[in-house]
């Protein structure tokens, strides 16, 4: 099986996580700066090719009612761009993933400031883990 990639897209940085080939575990992988959606897609395509990825899970803020906000529009734009390159994508609610990542870092006695790039990677891993867990629930 191929790997699955998880993305936590922010206005400054993008956190990336990868599954193992059996799609059981999510691990933080890398962080890169966000400049444009097109550059992000190029970076994702490069990683996907190198790491044997066939599905990208993109964190999308879940908004209850009201108009769609910029982070959700950005996630949808990235999905559309990746799909133009024949990359399978899914959006998944990423509400509070960065806060959860910060809590993980604090639980290990680390300071957020020193680990700000790790926050994005851990958030991406949490987003990917939610998706992987949903796959496991369907098979039980």
Helices, by number, come to 4
**What is the CATH-assigned architecture?**
2-Layer Sandwich
- Evaluate the radius of gyration: 14 Å
Give me the strand/helix succession.
EEEHEHEHH
Question: Which of globular, elongated, flat, extended, rod-shaped describes the shape?
Answer: globular
Structural class: alpha/beta
The count of strands amounts to 5
**What is the level 1 CATH name?**
Alpha Beta
Instruction: Give the end-to-end Cα distance, rounded to a whole number of Å.
Output: 19 Å
Q: What share of the residues lie within helices?
A: 40-55%
| Annotated CATH topology | Nucleotidyltransferase, domain 5
> Order of strands side by side in the largest beta sheet?
3-2-1-4-5
Stretches where pLDDT falls below 50 for ≥5 residues?
none
Q: Please, how many domains? A: 1
- Strand fraction equals 25-35%
Strand count, sense and closure of the main sheet? 5 strands, mixed
> Could you report the average pLDDT, rounded to the nearest whole number?
86
> In CATH, what is the homologous superfamily?
YqgF/RNase H-like domain
What attributes does this structure have?
140 residues, alpha/beta, 5 strands
């Amino acid at each position: 099986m191929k790997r699955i990639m998880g993305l936590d897209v922010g206005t400054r940085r993008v956190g990336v996580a990868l599954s193992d080939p059996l799609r059981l575990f999510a691990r933080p992988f890398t962080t890169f700066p966000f400049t444009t959606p097109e550059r992000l897609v190029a970076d994702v395509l490069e990683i996907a090719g190198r790491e044997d990825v066939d599905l990208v899970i993109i964190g999308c803020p879940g908004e209850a009612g009201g108009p769609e906000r910029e982070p959700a529009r950005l996630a949808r734009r990235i999905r559309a761009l990746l799909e133009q390159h024949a990359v399978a994508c899914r959006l998944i609610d990423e509400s509070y993933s960065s806060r959860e990542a910060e809590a993980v870092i604090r639980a290990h006695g680390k300071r957020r400031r020193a680990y700000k790039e790790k926050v994005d990677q851990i958030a991406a891993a949490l987003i990917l883990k939610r998706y992987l867990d949903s796959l496991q629930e369907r098979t039980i």
